[in-house]
Each structure stands twice: as structure tokens, then as C-alpha cells.
Amino acid sequence: MEKRITTPMKDEDVKELKAGDSVLISGTIYTARDAAHKRLIELVDSGKELPFDIEGSIIYYVGPTPAKPGMVIGSAGPTTSYRMDPYAPKLLDLGLKGMIGKGERNEEVVEAIIRNQGVYFAAIGGAGALIGKSIEEAEIVAYEDLGAEAIRKMEVKDFPVVVVIDSEGNNLYEIGQKQYLNTINNK
């Protein structure tokens, strides 16, 4: 089922999303990969403010390529999410509502998603140029020295994702595998 959401997300928005739902996101999302996540957690641990309002936010795990002339951003395909697993639970506890990446998450992240009414989305790997077309604005808001991995604030319209782990902990990767195994075992 295709759904539309606008950021910032609220608990009610997240509760309506179920593993397997196709979602189009509009509004503000932030980019951050592992180096930026490490710095965010260092800020939190030292009692300092984050460089953006994390409450209800979505972080997209991406290091976009440079923008070509006339473009807002270059290719913006997702990176593998497990590298952010050491940092994600703390950010979820601080109010982060959604994460976009690809690949599985560890049990601590799943528990934090459930505890905080969060959601994990997957963007389609290998479709970075297509995904980039739904990004209308992009500006670096922190850690410019990280280059492609700097934190960007992006305005998106109909950014395509799929719910992989919903707020109840239902995991599309597990559900899909079970459905496939049931199908081939019943032949």
C-alpha cells in the first residue's frame, strides 16, 4: 500500500506505517553517515546541542555525489545502514523518528525503534540518480570538512522508500524470507 507522509513525523504518522508499505516522503530530511553520526553522539555525550532539531526528523544514510551544473544534488543512493547501528539507538531516544538506508539493523536498533515509535525505511540501492530527482533543495548544515558525508538538510518531494521495520518491530526482510520459504516449500 502506498502512503504519503510529511516531515516532521509524529507518533501517529509512524504508527500508521507497516512493514512493506511504499511511502512517499515530502518535507525536510537530513543526511548523515557514520563519521557524522560519531560526531553527533560526541556532541550529545558532552552535553552540547545537535546542529539540527532531531525531534520528529528523518536521517538518510547517504553520501551524495557532487551536483552537476543546474542540479541540486548528484546521485543520492543509500548506504548500508549497519555502520550507523552503534549510534542509532541514542538518536532515536533523543527524538529521531525515521532512518533511511539499506540492509538489516541489529537488535538494539530494532528495540530502540519499538521503544521510541520509530521507523526504518529502505531506499532502493542502485537508483541514486532517480532518487536525486525527488530532492528539491540541499544545503550543508554541519561538518563540511567531511565532504560527501557532511550533514545536509534536504527538502524532498515524493521521496520513494519502503518501510522495512515498523514501530512494532515487524521486519520486511524477515517477513519476505518466510513468505518465500513457505512458497517454495508448498510446491
Automatic annotation (TrEMBL):
InterPro entries per UniProt: Fe-S_hydro-lyase_TtdB-typ_cat (IPR004647), Fe-S_hydroAse_TtdB_cat_sf (IPR036660)
Annotated keywords: Lyase
Molecular function (Gene Ontology), one example: hydro-lyase activity
Protein's UniProt keywords contain Lyase: yes
Family: Belongs to the class-I fumarase family.
Name recorded for this polypeptide: Fumarate hydratase subunit beta
Domain Fe-S hydro-lyase tartrate dehydratase beta-type catalytic: 8-174
UniProt keyword annotation of Lyase present: yes
